[in-house]
Write a structure and sequence with these properties.
With 195 residues, the protein is of the alpha/beta class. It is built from six helices and seven strands; from the N terminus they run ααβαβαββαβαββ. The chain has a seven-stranded mixed β-sheet. It starts with a helix and ends in a 10-residue tail after the last strand. The mean pLDDT is 90.
Length: 195
């Protein structure tokens, strides 16, 4: 698996971009804190988080992606701690991050762990592919595609702040298609569990 991703990332040129969910909602980020770019790839999310003043960790299985991110972060003098890590075997610890970003990575079993990895008040930014697609973008394996509203349901313990999933409704040449995105917040300890 690691070799597949190493080959894929080695073939990519150009600067990595942050995911749409983070680009459009970065105004929700805290002024300071610890952030994680989980399954970071080439690190577009990690770079945006670091530019926003957060202390960033970026984890990925691919050594090629991690090294490319390390070089980019050093070039900009950004504090990004990179780590080659299988997040399925080593998920984040309980209450260890103020912000977690996940894009184009779906492992349903990690959802409860991501909820508890957020500190109270922490934010999750998540974006990935859905089954109700209007193009061939994304994986073919349905195990890596979300059912309708599944992203919202996976993170139901969190308070929903932003959710977008347009499916095949209306003019499919406009809007967010083939994907769902979510920003959700872990309730503060003194708040009720439901939002």
């Amino acid at each position: 698996m690691q070799e597949k991703w190493n080959q894929r990332y080695a073939a990519i040129t150009g600067e990595p971009q942050a995911s749409r969910v983070l680009q459009e909602n970065h105004h929700l980020l805290p002024a300071e804190g610890d952030a994680l770019d989980l399954a970071c790839g080439l690190g577009g999310n990690a770079l945006l988080l670091a530019r926003s003043g957060l202390d960033v960790q970026a984890w990925d299985l691919s050594s090629v992606a991690i090294e490319a991110l390390r070089v980019r972060a050093a070039r900009e003098d950004l504090a990004v701690m990179v780590g080659q890590r299988d997040v399925l075997e080593q998920p984040p610890g309980v209450e260890s991050f103020d912000v977690i970003v996940v894009s184009y990575f779906l492992e349903r079993g990690l959802a409860p762990l991501l909820c508890t990895a957020l500190r109270p008040g922490g934010l999750l930014f998540y974006q990935t592919f859905v089954r109700d697609r209007v193009s061939a973008r994304g994986p073919d394996n349905p195990d890596f595609l979300l059912e309708e509203n599944e992203l919202r349901d996976l993170f139901a313990p969190l308070c929903l702040r932003v959710y977008r999933e347009e499916g095949s409704v209306g003019d499919v040449h406009q809007g967010l298609r083939d994907e769902a995105l979510l920003v959700a917040q872990r309730p503060l300890k003194e708040q009720a569990v439901s939002c």
